[in-house]
Design brief:
heterodimer; A: alpha+beta; ATP Synthase, domain 1; Single alpha-helices involved in coiled-coils or other helix-helix interfaces; eight-stranded mixed β-sheet; 8 strands; about 25% helix; B: alpha/beta; Helix Hairpins; Pyruvate Kinase, Chain: A, domain 1; five-stranded mixed β-sheet; 5 helices; about 60% helix; about 15% strand
């Protein structure tokens, strides 16, 4: 039986589909793959790329910035802090966020806000990496077939 | 009986009031749509997070209090705190009053000294007149707050609880049922009471990296999420209540204009009749 996958953030439901073959997520203990018949499982997530395969070569990629993943009875629930489909990622905004965060880190000494800035830097980097990998907006990406 | 001129002046005044309430109704209606949408869009996350916690709690039930995560541990309550979410502005019917009354009743029921975290001016202003300590106030969240905006509130709540400054925290807010109905709700925020989910049976979960680490992340998130959800619900409730209140005001004003117009016509007719009678009487006197 294929998986039912839901990806939700506090603001909206990002993804909700049945008939998914496989989910690859950036777990706290390393990248993990969920296949049908997976044992009941809860993990925290790292910022990174989440991939959903729906049989054939249909694959969707998403940038997520941490959260939780629960598997139970072939239902995968991802509670993401933020999640964007590849086509939704705003590259210009992510670049800007990266630039700001890097600048702030150079000038900053307060530890609490440093951690926060580093977290936002990481979020920006994840968005950029996922977007770039999928070869969007004229950036050097993988060559497209055909 | 008022003269026609007095009635005309009154009609003009009611008309301009109706224009204002109509404009406020339209503004509230457009804000309401977005606020309702945000409240409804946020519910799935809240629901899923509750499921996860409900699933987890089955494995927690067998554990000793002292072995539990600090946010789950129940202590003897010596000091409580209330997070009260109210509108910033009035002209939204009985909503702020109902919320304040509910919070005041809760304050009495608790039976231990309690302090208040006021989100929104109406609640703050109400409790200023009581001897309840107002610990913090958040009055500039805006109409469409983002998740990040409410984190300071949850930080205060969680810090106070873990530091032992409060032993129980309640959340009072207006739950959005539909445009016509909003109900004040009281919810215990801390210690976290895992939601009960009868449908599921205990399952042994695999935790990664470990149970303690997952709970460490999950529980603060659960508290944050509840506050965020409550604020979204409260916003949708506020805008709906304001739209309805302003619509009622506009309708009342229009009704009043109708009545006044009738009275004005009658008064004018009387005046004309009187003038005619004067003329006729005068002419007859001359004959």
């Amino acid at each position: 039986m294929p998986l039912k996958v839901e990806i939700v953030t506090a603001e909206r439901v990002v993804y909700s589909e049945e008939g998914v073959q496989q989910v690859v997520a950036p777990g706290a203990a390393g990248e993990l793959t969920v296949l049908p018949q997976h044992a009941a499982f809860i993990t925290t997530l790292m910022p990174g790329e989440l991939r959903i395969a729906r049989g054939g070569d249909q694959e969707e990629a998403m940038a997520i910035t941490g959260g939780f993943l629960e598997v139970r009875n072939d239902r995968v629930v991802v509670l993401a802090d933020a999640a964007e489909r590849v086509e939704e990622i705003d590259i210009a905004r992510a670049e800007e966020a990266r630039r700001r965060a890097e600048e702030a880190i150079r000038e900053q000494h307060d530890l609490g806000s440093l951690a926060q800035t580093q977290a936002s830097l990481q979020r920006a980097l994840v968005r950029l990496r996922v977007a770039q990998k999928r070869g969007r907006r004229g950036r050097p990406g993988p060559p497209r077939p055909g | 009986m008022a003269t026609a001129r007095e009635i005309r002046r009154r009609i003009r005044s009611v008309e301009s009031t109706a224009k204002i309430t109509k404009a406020m109704e339209l503004v509230a209606a457009s804000k309401m749509r977005r606020a309702q949408q945000m409240a409804l869009a946020g519910r799935p996350y809240a629901e899923r997070l509750s499921w996860v916690l409900a699933d987890l709690s089955e494995t927690l039930e067998s554990m000793e209090q002292s072995a539990l995560h600090p946010l789950l541990q129940r202590r003897e309550v010596e000091k409580a705190s209330i997070v009260l979410i109210t509108p910033n502005r009035g002209l939204c019917g009985g909503l702020p009053t109902n919320l304040n009354r509910r919070a005041a009743a809760l304050n009495m029921d608790i039976g231990v000294p309690s302090s208040l975290l006021a989100v929104g001016r109406k609640g703050r202003d109400f409790f200023r007149r009581t001897d309840t300590e107002i610990q913090a106030e958040f009055t500039d969240l805006g109409d469409y707050p983002e998740y990040m905006d409410v984190l300071p509130i949850s930080h205060i709540v969680i810090d106070d609880y873990t530091a032992g400054r409060v032993d129980q925290v309640f959340l009072v807010y207006a739950y959005f049922v539909n445009t016509m109905t909003q109900e004040p709700r009281v919810h215990q925020l801390l210690p976290v009471e895992p939601p009960q989910d009868e449908a599921t049976q205990a399952v042994d979960y695999i935790y990664e990296p470990g149970r303690a680490e997952v709970l460490d992340e999950l529980l603060p998130r659960y508290v944050e999420m509840q506050i965020y959800e409550a604020i979204l619900e409260a916003n949708a409730s506020e805008q709906s209540a304001r739209m309805v209140a302003m619509r009622n005001a506009t309708e009342a004003a229009e009704e009043m204009i109708q009545d006044l117009t009738l009275a004005r016509n009658k008064a004018r007719q009387e005046q004309v009749t009187n003038e005619l009678l004067d003329i006729v009487g005068g002419v007859e006197g001359m004959n």
